[in-house]
Amino acid sequence: MAGDNASTSSATTGKGRIRASQGNPSAPKEPKEPKGLTVERVWTTEGVHPYDEVEWERRDVVMTNWRDGSINFEQRGVEYPTSWSVNAANIVTTKYFRGAVGTPAREWSLKQLIDRVAKTYRAAGEKYGYFATSADAEIFEHELTWMLLHQVFSFNSPVWFNVGTASPQQVSACFILSVDDSMDSILDWYKEEGLIFKGGSGSGVNLSRIRSSKELLSSGGTASGPVSFMRGADASAGTIKSGGATRRAAKMVILDIDHPDIEEFVETKAREEDKIRALRDAGFDMDLGGADIVSVQYQNANNSVRVSDEFMTAVENGTEFGLRGRLDGSVISTIDAKGLFRKVALAAWECADPGIQYDDTINDWHTNPETGRITASNPCSEYMSLDDSSCNLASLNLMKFLKDDGGFEIEKFVKSVEFIITAMDISICFADFPTERIGATTRAYRQLGIGYANIGALLMASGLPYDSDGGRTVAAAITSLMTGTAYRRSAELAGIVGAYDGYARNAKAHQRVMRKHAAANDDIRAFSTVSDAIREAAGEQWTLGNRIGEKNGWRNAQASVLAPTGTIGLMMDCDTTGIEPDLALVKFKKLVGGGSMQIVNQTVPRALRSIGYQEEQIEAIVEHIGEHGHVIDAPGLKKEHYSIFDCAMGARSISPMGHVRMMAAVQPFISGAISKTVNMPEDATVEEVEEVYFQGWKLGLKALAIYRDNCKVGQPLSAMKKETPAAEAPAPVVEKVVEKVVEYRPVRKRLPKKRSSQTVSYSVAGAEGYLTASGYPDGGLGEVFLKMSKQGSTLAGVMDAFSVAISIGLQHGVPLETFVSKFTNMRFEPAGMTDDPDIRMASSVMDYIFRRLALDYLDFETRSELGILTARERAAQVQAEQDAAVDLAGMAASAPVPTKAPEPVVAEPVLPVAAEPAKPAETKVPAQPAPVTARTSTELLELVQGRSADAPLCFTCGTKMRPAGSCYVCEGCGSTSGCS
Description:
Layout: H1 6-11, E1 19-21, E2 36-38, E3 56-64, E4 71-81, H2 86-95, H3 110-127, H4 134-149, E5 153-155, H5 157-162, E6 174-176, H6 183-198, E7 202-206, H7 226-240, E8 250-256, H8 262-281, E9 302-307, H9 309-317, E10 320-324, E11 331-336, H10 337-351, E12 355-358, H11 359-364, E13 389-397, H12 410-430, H13 436-445, E14 448-453, H14 455-461, H15 469-497, H16 503-522, H17 529-552, H18 566-571, E15 586-590, E16 596-600, H19 603-610, H20 615-628, H21 656-666, E17 677-680, H22 686-698, E18 703-708, E19 757-764, E20 767-775, E21 781-787, H23 794-811, H24 816-823, E22 832-836, E23 839-842, H25 845-857, H26 860-866, H27 871-889, E24 927-929, H28 937-945, E25 962-964, E26 967-969
Parallel strand pairs: 6-7, 7-8, 8-9, 9-12, 13-14, 17-18
Antiparallel strand pairs: 1-2, 3-4, 5-13, 6-13, 10-11, 12-18, 15-16, 16-24, 19-20, 20-21, 22-23, 25-26
C-alpha cells in the first residue's frame, strides 16, 4: 500500500506519472534526491520530438466578412499538422498568433505558438523549484507539447494571448471584483473592470454592499442605489468591448435576494426589453450589434440574483421574507417570498435575465470560509471564489480518452490531469494581474480551473443518452476522477513547493470540503463496468489525495470548474463544448481550399457501431440524418435508441430538466460551478421557469440560467414558417418515379389587357421616386414599374430593366414573398428616413420598395413571419405583449395554470434544396453540399428546423454564433461572448 506522503505515494502510482521525490531520511548513506517532481513519459517517445511524429502542411488563412465579402484577415503559408481541421487552424491563426501581420515578427507556425507557451512554463517550473532535474523539466515540456499538438487539452485564451510575449503575462480568464458602499470603491470598480476588459477577460461583482435607494446618506439625502451605478459600468463595458484587441467585454452583476432594491434589479432588463420592442416597431435597428441597440441600457452584463436557503424555504412554505438594510442589517420591509420568486421567473421568461445563484450551497462547498464568504462569480458563473481574485482555466478533450471498444483511458486521463494541474499552478508564479489586490489574493490562494469539453460527444459515441441515468453516471464519475486527481496532485505539490498561503487558517474547512467530495463519489450509482471502473479509480484518488493533504496541505484552494470552452473547444476540434450535449446531428465543415460541406456528425456512426448496428444499416441511418437532420423514422433504427441522438436543439431536443439533472450529477465533483444555460422552448410557461429554478436549489446546484427561445428582440427576430412535418406529410412513393423522369417547366401567366394598378410616390433619405404596381383580377401582383432619375439616365435604365425582370418572375409563378425575403434589408445608399408612415426607416431603395409591396399585396400572416407590419399592427402587437405580461404578473396569487400535455414528437421538415428531377437513391450519402445561405452549424440547423435559432451575430465577422455554456462562440473566427 502507498504511504501517506508525497514521496511514498508517488512510487505506487505507476509508470508515466509525475512523481514527487523528496529522498529517504532513513537511509543516510544514500545520496539525497533533490526536492522536486520526477517526470516520466506518458505520450511522448524518448529520443523523438513531438513535432517529428506528425505530418505538417502549409495553408492559407483568409477570413472574409460574409456581409460584403471583404477580407478582414489574411495570412498565407501558415504551418499546421494535416490532422488539424481548417476551422481550428483559422481560429488559432487569427486569435492566437502574435506579431503584426505581414512583418517578420508575426508567428506563422503552430510550432512557434506551442513553443512560446510550453517553454515559458518549463522555464518557470525550473526557476521556482518544481522539477528534480533539468531532464525532468524537458520531459514535462515535451509532454505538454504533445498534448497541445494532438488537441488533448488546451489552456484558456489569455494564456495563448499573453504568455511568452512582451505584453503583461495575464493567464487568467475569470475575475471576481468587490465594491463597497463608498464612491471611491464604486469608481475603483469602474476602473478595475476596464483594465480587465482591456486584457481580454471578464469579471463579476456583487453590488449588495451598496446601500439601497430606500436608505439615507450621511448628509441626509437618499442613496442612489446599486441599479443606478450599474448604468455607468454598463456604458463603460459597451465602449471597451469594441475597442479591445482580443474580444468584447463580458461581465456579471449580482444582487442578494434580501437587498431592498431587489425588485428594481430583477425587472431592470425586462423593462429595457420593452424599450427595445418599442424602438424596433418605430423602425430602429435593434438587432444585436445593430446601430441603435447602444441606446438601450444594461445590455453588456449578465444579471443574477443570490438566493439563500432562508428565502427558498419561504418560497416553498409561502411565507413572507424580510428585505434588509445595508447599514445595520435591519429589516426595512417584508415581501411575499413566492411573489418575489415569481417576479424573478417572469423576468427570466421575458428576457433570460436574471439567472440565479444559490448562496448557501456555494458557501457550504467553500474551502476558505475563514478568509471570507463567496459573494460573486465570473460572467459565465463557473468560477466562484473570494472577492478580488482570479482563476486560470484549462480543459481536456474527453474524446481523446475514449477507447475503440467503448472503454475509458483511466490511466492516461489521470496522468494528463497531473501534467495540466502542474502547469496551471506554475503559471501563477510568473503571471501578471490587472490590479495588485487581485494579484495578492490569487497568489495567496492559487485558484485553478481544470475542466473538460466533449462530454456530449463521448456519451453519444458510447451509446448513452445525455438525459439518462447511464449518461449522468459516466459524466459524474469522469468529473470526480478529474477533480480528485487534481487535488491529489495539488497535495503532492504542497509537499514540494508549499501549501497555499491561506491554507493554515482554513485547514479544517478545506479538509471538510475534500471529505464531502469523497463522500459524494461513494454515492455514484453503479451503472456499467466502465462507469464503475472510473468511479473506483476516482475513489482511490480522493482517498490518497486526502491522506497526503492532511499531512502537506494543498497547493490550491480550488482545482476545477466547468467552463464554456468556446474558442478553445474549436481549437481542439471538439464536437460539443463544456458540459453541453451535441447542438445538432448535422455539422458545417470547412474544406481545405475553400468551400464547405454539410456532414452528419461523425459521432453518430461510432454510436451506432457501439450499440450493434451493421455497416449497411449505419449507411442508411446516416443518409436519413443527412437529409432530415434527425433520426425519427430512420430506416432500421429502433425507437428505443432514438434518445441516444437527442440534442440541444432540433426535432428531438433534450428537456429542460434533462439539462438540470446532468448539472446536478456532476456539481458535487466541481470546486467551482458549471457554465450552462438551460434552453427552454418558446411556449414554455413562467411556471416552468419557476420549477427549473426551484429544482436547481433542491438538486444542489450552485448557479443556473435559462433561455427561452425568441424571448429577446436583440436576437434574429422571426421564426421562419414551418413546413409540414415529415411525419404528417404524405409519404412520397419514390419507387414509382425513379424509372421515369418528369420535367416540369413554369408557364407564364400574362396579365389581362386591362388591369388595375396603383402608384405610390416615395422618398428615401431625400431621393424621390415612383412605384407602380399592377395586379391580376384576383388581386395577385403581376407587374412592377419603378422610376427614379430622369429618362435616359443610366439609373433609369437599370431600374427599367430590374422592373421587367421582377415582372416576368412574378408572371412565371415566383412568389412575391420570395422577392421580399431577398431584397428587404439590402443595404446601400440612399438609406435613411422615408415619408411613409408605415416604413419609417429603409436601408436602401430596394428595401423600401419590397416592404411597400409586401404591405400592399401579402396577407398578415405571411408579413408577420417576414417581420413586416404596418404602424397600427406594430402598435397592436406591443399592446398585446404588454397585456400578456400584465396578465402573467397577475397570476402570482392565483392557482398555477395547468400544464398542457406534451405534444407528440414529429419529424422535422427536410433541408430545403433546389427543385430538380427525382433521382434514384445512392447507396451511401454521408455528406451533402451545404446550402449557400448557411455559414455555421447554427445556420445549418435553422435550415433543418425551418426556424430561426436564437443566437447573436458575431461582432467580428457577422456570422451567427452557437451556444457554448452560458455564452456563445463564433465558428467562423472564434470570437466569444464570454470570458474563457
